[in-house]
Amino acid sequence: MHDPRPFRCHPFFLTALLWLAIAPGAPARGEVKGPFGAALDRYMKELAGFGYSGSVLVAQKGEVVLDQGYGLADRAHGTPFTADTLFDIASISKPFTAAAVLRLEMKGKLKVEDKISRFFPDAPADKAGITLHQLLTHTAGFPETIGPEYETLARKAFLRRIFATPLVHRPGERFLYSNAGYSLLAAVVEVASGRPFGEVLKSEVFLPAGMRHTGFLPDAADRARLAHGYTGDGDWGTSLDHPHAPDGPWWNLRGNGGILTTTGDFYRWHAALQGDAVLSKPEREKYQSPKVPEGRGEFPKYAYGWSVSRSPSGNRKLSHVGGNGVFQTDYRRYPQEGAVIAITSNTDDYSAIAIADQLEQRLFGKPIAELPATRPAAAAELRRCAGAYTLASGERIEVVAEPSRLVVTPEGREGLTLLSGKPGAGRQRRFAEREQNVGGALAAAVRGNLGPLARILVDSDAAAKRWRATVAAREAELGPWTGVTMLGTRSIGGQIVSHARLAFKRGTRVLDVVWSGPTIDHLAVGRSLWPTYFLPEAPSRFVTYDVGTGTIAHLSCEGTGAAAPTLSVESPGGGAVKAKRRPAGAKPKPI
Predict the structure, then answer these.
(1) Model-level pTM?
(2) CATH of domain 88-305
């Protein structure tokens, strides 16, 4: 994922209300059509049991077959996620910024070949010749970010900063994803139109497309349907609970993020791009045709706000992902097939992108990983298995009973491996390399050298500076940061995550390192490791599933009557390992 992420923590468990909202038999919300739609709905309900929360839309041959919500949009009030829930689409705002530019080109207000000096005569010499085409294709040479996305930064101050920021490479030389470049495009739109950027989006893009629930600042009715995001610190709130200008996001976010929408409006956007409602045919082709390679391969290539690749059928696929460390969204369009996938999540521990990969396989009739069979379980059976367990090494595993599932939280490396299984040789090698890289980078960071960490972070120096601020906040609470111990790497919730324990003078915290390919997407600090969710599959036997790898692990709760149960966990490559429940009142060993 491209977005820079703030450093946040991960949830220890979901509330009982969350499970009641996604349990089998919960009332359907939204739209489910035909056998294929019903099959997708069953699949999503099962994934919700394993930790997913959000909304999904799938269209096939020009018809919506699934538009449905799962889990809770607001846990405190028990508000379910529905097809009408609004969510933050983060970087998927970029295709709309690009559409606003092309809409103004249709009206003769600008040309994509224009240099930015036309709109900003005081642009410095090294930047004056940058074209709108280069900004649209991320080839202008600007870095990914020039400050935190919620920083209070007005347009004039933003322009001063971006024009003072050194270019990473010469304009037009290569692809380098830049949120800052798209914020500069938003400023161009304002200058060329003479109107605020949000007004241009609404009148020139959203309303012509029929998107009446999309924008920066929703009306009162839509504001009540905004999803909250959740981290290990609890309720992150909605995007509007964080700093905003009176007319929308501040300028480190404007143009590259900050748009709120629904899955239904995502489909309306796709439908509008199938005709001339917003862009003429020539402008649509300019908008969606591949321009520059994003990497070394033939695909993906970047268009204007779209990543262009091939669908499983070999036709053009237009997509973009977005995330802000809490919300995660994937939007995929298949124009020749009349197909769409739009999915979001509102927790920071489950990958909407990994689910989108599986939905795409199903949409195109490709082989799929089947979910394990589950069944209801009595509350008494779940409560009997709850408690604190100790492995032979002394390491602990905590088991919490929620309605219809167990939430199992490991303490360290042994528990991580036990719950997620040992990866195959190839993956094990890649995991080890990542651990070595992040371990070395963190060791250097303890000594005050952030260079190695910056080199493996998606947004480099900016993220390293945020990391410094995060550590400073923890040091204010716990005293100086003194060391780091790597705990392991696993795939969980469809994401590859390395975990470490950070030692401070007066306590410890857990660091979660979430990977995007070979680089770190974001870092999060919390009190515990991410939990694993086990659903009942037989009497006293439970199962978990990772959507990213298809890995299945089993947990048995053995023992009857008054006898304290023994926990037995079976995972791929790890065999069966037993843990004994600690007597009530026993003090845990320090960690």
Answers:
(1) 0.89
(2) 3.40.710.10
